[in-house]
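Why Protein N-lysine methyltransferase METTL21A? Reviewers of the renewal asked for a concrete example.
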Amino acid sequence: MRQMKGEGEEEDIVCLDESFFIDDNYQLTTFTFGSQVIELLCLQSASTDFDLTGQLVWPGAMLLNDYLSKNAELLQGCTVLELGSGVGITGILCSRFCSKVVLTDHNEEVLKILKKNIELHASSENSKCCSGLVAEKLEWGNSEQIGHILQTYSDGFDLILGADICFQQSSICLLFDTVEKLLRNRREGQCKFILAYVSRTKIMDSLVISEAVRCGMQINELVGTRSVVGNLEGVIFEVTLKKQDE
Ligand SMILES: C[S@@+](CC[C@H](N)C(=O)[O-])C[C@H]1O[C@@H](n2cnc3c(N)ncnc32)[C@H](O)[C@@H]1O
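Here is what the prediction returned.
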């Protein structure tokens, strides 16, 4: 790692690479959502300022998994793509009901633990249910990676899911551009984006709504889903493409 100094000063060389800051001391942890029990590897708390938010389970995932476990009929036989999957807790729950689940993330370190958790579930007693569970790299707004997903899964998906993925202002526009392309890719029937949103700032609350509208979508709160998660307010939104005449 090189650190540039001011004019006239020598360049400083720090003999540490990024891996030095990465905590990969994952713990096998049990989560329960109604009758669904999920065991997976995750950290218990974030320990770096590097972009490794996905190494642990966030309140938005708890909110979404509670909702999905109570409304499992929504998932029955469906195809699902999850954005910003982190350790995979939402996708793994979905794989117990869905025919195909594609878990995505942009961070290489997070993808490593996500794949480990998929393997863990494939080798567990639930392995029959996890046959359609795969991980793919997908950074929001990356046209090459989006193109790969659209081509590989050319029939599209019934549902796009996202849990606690709205926390960085600069990525929201790219997130909704990506969602719009995924919703449009549906060959038959309608695809919905289900977003478990956790409110941390007023600016983000309005940005999420305005970006959905900018991308030609309607965004509605799912009745009865507004609740306290951790010590924050969370809600589940359903986002769909506006019909031509709306
Ligand atoms: C706060 S974590 C939530 C993880 C998981 N969904 C949960 O609720 O436990 C946000 C996730 O989004 C991923 N992420 C952030 N920015 C992204 C981007 N621009 N493209 C793709 N994934 C992104 C992170 O790597 C991380 O896994």
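The chain has a mean pLDDT of 91. This is the kind of structural detail the renewal will allow us to pursue systematically.
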